[in-house]
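Justification of resources, computational component.

The compute hours requested in this renewal are based largely on the per-chain cost of generating structure records like the one below. Each record pairs the submitted sequence with a full structure-token output. That output is archived, and it is also reused by downstream analysis tasks.
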Amino acid sequence: MSRAAGIGAPVGIYVAGVGLTPVGERWERSLREIALEAIEAARADAGGLRPQALYVGNMLAPALSGQTHLGALLADFSGLRGIEATAFEAAGASGGVAVRHACLALASGAVDSALVVGVEKITDRIGSAVNAALAGAADADHEAVQGVTPTAQAALLMRRYMHEYQVPADGLAGFSLNAHANAVACEHAIYRRAISAQEYARATKVSDPVNLYDAAPVADGAAALILTRREAYPPGGPLPAARIAASAVATSALALHDQADPLAFSAAAQSAARAYAQAGLGPKDIQVFELHDLFTIYAVLALEAAGFAGRGDGWRLAQDGQIARGGRIPISTFGGSKARGDSGGATGVYQIGEVALQLQGRAGAAQVPSVRLGMAQCLGGAGATAVTHILARDESLRQGSDSS
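The structure output for this chain reads:
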């Protein structure tokens, strides 16, 4: 394996359990209680399997909950005291980074089973405190100190993209419409209501040209996965398994003004390329893509970076239904960050859980037909960190299979 393909491509790593909690204003639950809800659901889904290590993805707990040391906290609170437990922070990519490190531990043979939980408790604080915490994903010395917020960054990128490629005012509307339509059937989504093109057009601008429907709501949530090596996978059942075929991380300059081409999302392109190389696949092989649509412009740039569209053409994929569940490359199949809700550092874990459910045929009304290969990509900041995972449907672990 060359270094261009990334370090530590997963071999025989499976999603044995998925636990996705509802995203929303969870006033009645603390951070640890939301995390426990997801952990218990994932462990139950994995037949009660006890993990040997815990990896936590979180972005905002130190700033909004006054809590660090989440590894020990959640291991203790979930009845796993004594196991290895570590927290990871990479802004909105924190959950994906936690999964990446779990994959490395499993691939090395250091552990046979691992629990990954992404969790955020945001809504106990409001206004400037939340905005300041979210702005920490940008360059504190050169962007945040000047009042640049994540929404302002997205507006700069969206304005430049629309100017560069002559995109009409409603050119990105299809991404919001698709996400909201998909969220109607998603039990863990915060906004389970479809919107119309007219509603999008009338929406208030939050940072011109970004309107209310171009920006995802930030809310509380937790998602958990039980990952195992093949040897530790629970005894075969009636469902196909979801195997992690690739795991890759890349970074670019943190500040937008330091990026050679802010519209290129170079970290997203690099992490996707490394994942494709690990899995021996390309964009044409992927049948579902859970991308990080914190803002609609991020969905467009992620599609281009991952090779699903050429430069300046990503926005056109929403014009003719190519991103819908029955289209060429379905995205945001459970609503994405836009309508499922964005839970900061938990995003990447939600995405991988959703892809796993698609591969196993457990997506319910959100199911993409005959899907065998899926990809998840989460972003930190304005694309400064990107984590890409490719998952494959694996029939060999089903009950009665002849494979060993």
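DSSP finds twelve helices and eleven strands in the chain. The longest helix spans residues 31-45.
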